[in-house]
Task: structure prediction
Amino acid sequence: MPYISRAEAAAFLAELGFPVAKNTLQKYASVGGGPPYSKFGNRCLYEHSKLLKWAESKVTHHECPHASRWRVIETGKDG
Result:
């Protein structure tokens, strides 16, 4: 099925490791910043591909700023 409800969207994201509450999706629909959605009457409908793209865009990758320092301590060598 190409469209899913807000509750189904929250469950879908949670299954993929992106825990988002249904109420959070509702808030994003009101204030912005959430995944794209379509309307059918007064219901918001989401697409799997757009949910996944949105969730992945929210992931940030961090590296320890002292990673090279720890490497020196562990190995006793620079590099």
Observations:
- The CA atoms of residues 55 and 69 lie 33 Å apart.
- The beta strands are 38-40, 43-45.
